[in-house]
Structures are given as C-alpha cells and as structure tokens.
Amino acid sequence: MSLFDYDFVNGKCSKYETNHLHMYVEDNIELENLDNMTLSAYATFVHEYIHYIQHITCIYDIRMSDMYNRMFAKYRDYIRSNHTIKIPLKLWITDDAIHTFVDRFNNIEGDKETAFNISDIEIDEQEVAIAQKGKTAVWIGCYDFDNDKAEEHGFRFGHRCIIEGMAHCIQSIINKEVVHTVVPYHAVELIIGKEIPQIVEDKKLIASICLCALLWDNPSTGFFEVLNLLKQHSDWNGKDLYKSIIRDFSVSYKGQTMPFYRLLTDFSNDLKGSLEALMGTDLEYYSMVIDNCILDSSNCHHRLIDVLYDCDISNRKIFKEKLLNHYGYPFIDGKNQCALPLKIKGGKLLPYKESAILYGIELIMARLWLKGDKKECKRYPICASTMFVESAKCDATEECLYAPWKKKEKCVFTETLRYFGILDKDYQDKE
Question: What is the pTM for the complete model shown?
Fold first, then answer.
C-alpha cells in the first residue's frame, strides 16, 4: 500500500510505502543535520516518518504488515514452483487466503478522496454500528451548501483517514502553513468538530486519539470508541488516554483474553518472524527497532506521544534524539540523496542486508502487479536521473523500461531475483 501525500501549496508529492519500509520525500533531506532542511521539507519529512511510526507501533498496521509479508512469501513460492510467470500476477483471484486478506483490507481502508465540497457532515450512530458488525469503514454523511447538495453516503471514514489525519496534525504543529483541507487528511478534525468540538484545535490530543484508534482491528469504529472514552474523561491528555487504553482495554485473541499491550507485543514478535521468513535471513536493524517498540508498549506508554507532550517536536535536535534514534528509519528517497540504515563492518559503513531485500521485493512486486500497465522498473526514474549528467555513472538500461529481469548488469531488481532463486524464469507480459 502506498500513502501519497500531496502538498497543495508547493505542488509536491511525497509518500510512504507501508509494506516495504520505504518513504519518498519530494524535497532535499539531511538526516545528519536536520537543521539544513527547509521548514516545509522538515515538516513533510516528519509527516512521512509518522506513517513509519504507525507502521511499527500500532496493532492494526503491524497486523496488516505481517499479512502482507505472508502474501509476498506466497508470491515468491509460486514463482519458485513455476517456470512461466504471466504478468500481471494476481494470486488473490485463485488463493482464498490472499483474497480474504485483500478484501478485508479494502473494506477497512476507506476513501482516498470524495467528490463532495464538504460544508458540513452528519454522523449516524447506526452507520458506526453497521461498520463495527461488518468490519468496514464508516459511512459519513456530507452537505455541500455551495451547490445545495446532500449525500447520506458522502465518504467512507476508514484507516486511511485516521493515519493521514494523525500525520497531518503533527505536520501542522511544525508548519502552520501546511494545507490539507480534504479527505482523507481533514476527516478526523471534521468528526471531532461534531463529537467533541472543544478539542478540535488541540492537535496533540487529536494525534493521540488517532494513534489509539489504530490499536483496534477496525480503526474506524475504534476511533469512535476512543472518542466516547474521552467524553467520560474530559481532563485527560493524550498520554492519559493512551496509557488507559493500552493497559486497561482487553481483547480476545486465539482463545485468550489479554490487554492491548500484550497483544501488541505478540503481534510485534509475529512481524519479526514474518519478515525473517520472507527474506530468508535474520533481522538485525529492524529487530532492534521492534524491540524498542515492545519495551515501550510493555511500559504502557508511547514515545511519540511523550515527545508531543513533554518536548517540542519542532525542535529538530529533540526529534533526532528522542524519535529518530529510538525508532530508527526506513529506506528514504529524497531529491538530493538516498538514506538507509547503515552499520559498521570491517571499518566501513555498509547498509543492512534487510534494507536491500525489502526494497528489491518492492520493485519486483510493483512489476508483477503491473499497476496502471507501467512496464518500466519502479526505480527507473531515479536510476536514469544521471543519464545526462557529465562524468556521472548511469545504472539505467533499455531493459529497465520493459523487462528488468532481462538486464545483464547487476542492480537491486536483478540481484533480488537472484537472491530468491527466481531470476531464470520465463516472465511474460499478458497481451
């Protein structure tokens, strides 16, 4: 799943690839010295980084990532067992487990946008109950006063609205000029404005509400449960809210009743296991990262919420010390450079093997699914960017544009195919 974030002021599009620990920032990045980044670039970077934190600390996102890993492993095993691979490869058509997972994800994800010019909304408790029973996003009614329109089913409030609403709130704490007034970014504020209007300007609390909702197996209905709890405890801040929910709320899983913090620990360990099974190697870097997250949850607190309330997230030194050094970071593509976790080996700085494998899987799956009929390798625009730069090496070749598995030169795509033992297959695009 890709989360695209469009900056309407500057016309830039950044995104985070949830399933591959990879984020793009359509600005120059400077991880070693965040002060060198413009305010807009830093705020955008933080927005995408929040998605990464959601990915590794929230029950719903961890569970979805674990399921994606298992799905990708099925693709790998299918290719290993077959010589001719017809593209696009849509295993969910014939594999019931994959179909069930994709269907569930799509039902909960909610809308990316709405055709409505939203002047006001209406929340029907019956729609919330229907969504809870059916494990789907919640339909929100919309009014468009300018065009004299009303629609009972205006947009589906789901997981996407919650993660984007949370990231947007934190981004706007840093850059007050950021503009995201549409669904999915603005949906949580619209709903909170109806349900608890007195906190609609409290961006720290709104971000905390969103993060808490991501502990539920259906975040959209979990969001309303969190709001109902907050109505009963109007004196709570985000730290109080998160601690109460993760410690005191119980859930049944595999015949056992346990608090959220125990379930979060179990799912985090499952995520480590599925990553290792997918890649065929022990985790190093992300094992340390996930262990940090497990330690936080076992103590019933969340590092990000602590930073929001105890520190100034706009302070780049604090952000690096408290968050970047704690949660680590994914593979990051900026306009000026690529950044990925590095380790010292033999006196040299080298990337972790898992980062390269995960990125290779991302490139392979993008080509196998052939979304939008795009045949070029997903990394081609980056590899080709030095094509006309004097004295710069260009890694792009003609094969990258239509059949990257035919490329003779070593690259992430071909080396990942070789690593998994699936390079010498007959990959065929369906006519």
Answer: 0.92
> What pLDDT, in 10s, does the model give residues 382-422?
888 877 776 677 889 999 999 999 999 999 999 999 999 99
Structure tokens at 162: 């919650």
Plot region of 114 (φ>0 → left; ψ -120 to 50 → alpha; else → beta): beta
Strands 138-144 and 331-333: unpaired
Calculate the average pLDDT of the chain: 91
C-beta neighbour count of 46 within 10 angstroms: 23
Handedness of CA 235, 241, 243, 249 (dihedral sign): positive
Task: Give per-residue burial for 238-260: e unless 16+ CB within 10 Å, then b.
Answer: bbbbbbbbbeebeeeeeeeeebb
Strand 426-429, strand 84-87: pairing: parallel
- For the stretch 81-137, pLDDT in tens is 999 999 999 998 999 988 898 899 999 999 988 887 899 999 999 999 999 999 999
Percent of the chain at pLDDT exceeding 70: 95
Band the pLDDT of 371: cuts 50, 70, 90: confident
Task: Give the up-direction half-sphere exposure of residue 150: CA atoms within 13 A in the CB hemisphere.
Answer: 4
- Taking the C-alpha atoms of residue 400 and residue 125, their distance in angstroms, rounded to an integer, is 51
Helix (H, G, I), strand (E, B) or coil at 240: helix
Angstrom distance (rounded) from CA 46 to CA 23: 11
**Pair 152, 139: CB distance under 8 Å:** yes
- Cα separation, 1 vs 15, in Å, equals 10
Let me know: does 237 contact 204? Beta carbons within 8 Å. yes
Integer CA distances (angstroms), 295 to 65, 258, 291, 326, 327, in order: 20, 17, 6, 11, 12
> Exposed e or buried b for every residue in 106-137, given b needs 16+ CB within 10 A?
ebbbbbbebebebeebebeeebbeebbeeebb
Q: What pLDDT is attached to residue 390? A: 67
**Which residue type occupies 365?**
M
Give 198-221 as a DSSP string: GGTT-HHHHHHHHHHHTTSSSHHH
Phi, psi of 284 (to 5 degrees): -115, -75
Q: Which amino acid, residue 311? A: C
Rounded to the nearest 5 percent, the helix, strand and coil shares of the chain are 55, 15, 30
